[in-house]
Amino acid sequence: MIDEMEKVNEEKETGRLEAFSDGVFAIAITLLVLELKVPDVATAAHSPAALARALLQQWPSYVGLVTSFFTVLIMWVHHHAILRNVCRTDAWLHFANGCLLLGVTFVPYPTSILARYLQTPAAKTAAAFYAGTFVLIAICFYLFIRAAFRKPLLSARASMEFVAKTCHEYMFGPPLYLAATLAALLDVRLSLGICTALWIFWATTITKSTRA
Amino acid sequence: MIDEMEKVNEEKETGRLEAFSDGVFAIAITLLVLELKVPDVATAAHSPAALARALLQQWPSYVGLVTSFFTVLIMWVHHHAILRNVCRTDAWLHFANGCLLLGVTFVPYPTSILARYLQTPAAKTAAAFYAGTFVLIAICFYLFIRAAFRKPLLSARASMEFVAKTCHEYMFGPPLYLAATLAALLDVRLSLGICTALWIFWATTITKSTRA
Amino acid sequence: MIDEMEKVNEEKETGRLEAFSDGVFAIAITLLVLELKVPDVATAAHSPAALARALLQQWPSYVGLVTSFFTVLIMWVHHHAILRNVCRTDAWLHFANGCLLLGVTFVPYPTSILARYLQTPAAKTAAAFYAGTFVLIAICFYLFIRAAFRKPLLSARASMEFVAKTCHEYMFGPPLYLAATLAALLDVRLSLGICTALWIFWATTITKSTRA
Amino acid sequence: MIDEMEKVNEEKETGRLEAFSDGVFAIAITLLVLELKVPDVATAAHSPAALARALLQQWPSYVGLVTSFFTVLIMWVHHHAILRNVCRTDAWLHFANGCLLLGVTFVPYPTSILARYLQTPAAKTAAAFYAGTFVLIAICFYLFIRAAFRKPLLSARASMEFVAKTCHEYMFGPPLYLAATLAALLDVRLSLGICTALWIFWATTITKSTRA
Hints:
The structure is a homotetramer of 212-residue chains.
Chain A: H1 2-31, H2 48-57, H3 59-83, H4 91-106, H5 108-117, H6 123-148, H7 160-170, H8 173-186, H9 188-211
């Protein structure tokens, strides 16, 4: 009984940090749709076919929207899984979480750069800028788990196996995204392929953790 | 007593999923107003009547705002009613919920396409694009209830009657919206009529469920 | 003890309605700042004085921001005070709450219309549009308390005095805002004066309720 | 046991105030990214190098984004720390909190003014406008703690040491930001230096409080 009560108490401290982070994730993910602009078909060409063509020509924006949406979503699921093991907050966790959230709110910007310049000769720079953003976010994620997984903050119910596995896996994030950034200078598709492969990997990782 | 405690415990796991989803729904529904642009009446015609005319001419935007607002609201009420029967989350529920939220955040875009082109010859394409979006959302909703209504995730308090009724009703969503999409190519009003009829149906469905 | 538990249980049902509404209020109130546009001072006139003049010339936008901010804030405090007396939800409360939230999300639009046309001959139309919006919102607020203050939804802790007082006061909302709307056709300052007086009245009302 | 229950009860009253404030902070912090515009490189110059140059030239916007992000984040951490000592709300706290939130939602505007005019002769006005905003916010923060730290609202668990220390420290906010505002008329870097030094000070203050 008293144990139950302590659990209720334990959760309290990270409550507002989670609520605030959830808010930032939710807003960042919803703002992505603002990147889609209503196409301006010339009045002379107001035919159904012209509008259909204009909507189809925006495919890089749709791809960008879907990619960034699942990117932010997977980051949110990871954030969620990490904080389930934490019951106290301190200034360092707030700061590390802040850096991570800055990265999350920034995602729509490189995505729209990529959508805008994917079919131009400047695509290499756009892809490098996109992958480079994730180098920074991967570093922030690593700082975040380091701040979150300290003894005094860990919940009594924390899975030490999850903690060890996460610390190990997140170490590979920054160098792999750096490779994707450098790859952009050679070939845009190679760079975006590495990014996509990594997101599938992060999604699989968390699926297994949640199942176990 | 212990039973009460377990209920409190049960709710916990879907808490952040609901908070995040509520955030996304709330933001998507509020961003709709950003589609309304302050009309630019020429300085020479700064008469009260000219501004009144300009405000009235925006009626398709107002209709679009109100329609999309209640569309997203009804989806939120359904989402709310579904998750009341669920107490645990896993990766598949997160993924299905994510697809659904992607659809929700997308709604403002086809709505503004429709508002922009409703009074032009391109209205058929705009209406097909609008109804087509709901084909995808209806599929996502079906995946979502399939993921949510699995045994291990269901709450002990889940109403099996609600679960069975919802699984049955949601099966009709995708084919009916597909009919609305095809109808748009024949007649715009027929397509929008089917969409409106369906929303009234969904609203009625949930009203009865909540009452029972 | 069991009584305490019941209270915790009671709150649960309106929890997501409140969370969703809080989200909509919070977003509507924050979107107001998007109406402020960075003034474009001509490069030739990039003097400190020219920028200061440009920033000062935006005063109607600042007044609009502050007014709408406190308008939405007072509506939120009222919403908060009303729902403290309610512990269950049903489809009608969701619907009435939805209509009210639609009104709340709409506020930024008439505010920016007013800010844009306050110093032009079209000010009368802008003020009538602004006051007219609040006629609709006052009607929605009245529907909302009628839906919320039904027996089956009221909390066991509801203050019947507050309920009766609120039902009485809210009846005056629609006719008074209608007067403000008609007054706009005679004199813009009279209309805005009635609106301001009413907001001070609503703020005072709730202050007394909260104190008591 | 009963004591534990009372704590749970105590938290309830500030719950929605915190949820609403968290929402406003989260949205204000996320809207900052909307200030970043996709650079429009001329089609003729669609080279990787031209896009890289265009992205680099936006450095004042990046600096503005990062500065404002951490500014709002530190304000949120302070808001969080203050309300942990409070368990009841009344109309004055709602009003003081409202003024503070108005200041928070306003931050993106002076930041984008500063980013836009930092490299022009009008920088002095932009810096004074930026620092001047924080004079108002510092006054709002002082009113907020005065409203929050009244006997009837304080939690039984409130740290009187934290209360006294905060009341003392926050008194210095308005005059120091006023100095930064006046300094802007002499030298832009001096003004921004004072602002930065103060944010580091506020961050350090709260770090110590949270640790203790």
